[in-house]
Amino acid sequence: MDVKEFFRKxxxxxxxxxxxxxxxxxxxxxxxxxxWRTYMTTAPYVDPDxxxxxGIDVSAHNGMINFESVADEGYEFVFLKATEGSSFRDTNLxxxxxxxxxxxxxxxxxxxxxxxxxxxxxxxNLLHSxxxxxxxxxxxxxxxxxxxxxxxxxxxxKIRLRDMTDYLNLRGYRVxxxxxxxxxxDLLLPEMEGMPLWICSFQSNPIEAEWTFxxxxxxxxxxxxxxxxxLNAFSGSRADFRGFVxxxxxxxxx
Length: 254
Hints:
Blueprint: H1 3-40, E1 54-58, H2 67-72, E2 77-84, E3 88-89, H3 93-102, E4 106-112, H4 119-130, E5 139-142, H5 154-170, E6 175-179, H6 181-188, E7 197-200, E8 213-220, E9 229-234, H7 238-251
Helix pairs in contact: 4-5
């Protein structure tokens, strides 16, 4: 092959190489997504004898829910999204609370904590949304980086979180914290060590720390709910769960 012939064929070869590169990249991307969904978010086995109390957590994103069917499936508690930051309120809280309590489920609420929002203002938004509703499981504060503000110093986050927690405690509410491993170690320790923990983990050993609730599946299927729903387990026996509920109600003065 002479020089002219080489340069005549070179562009076609470059195009073919580019196409091959794109195809390989797309294949690797799809394999990565499949592996992540299959192995990183696949629910672990949760022994029903060891963890007999199961529940769900929902928000307006789950749509209209038949809580009677949820209860018939054997689920006994639910955490309902109430608020986010200092102004957002979940539009389905009122309806979800009424339907869940009517179905006999024990109810708690959760608040998505905004790193860049004043802690007291977030607590006030939450309490205004709760109103005079009785809570069996208290309040969970969701502390995670996903979807949150970036660039906020951890010390500032912890101060705002402490402000919110202290305000809720003074108003008579029991607080537990929802987070994953990174959030627990980076944002909750050491200040919140010993507080009730609701851990999100897809590993058979959720975390090397004491926990109260375990969110073990983001893609659960429950009759009465269209689409995926988060599944949770309580850490102890049925007697332990009754004790937790009684303690939560006692703190609230019910």
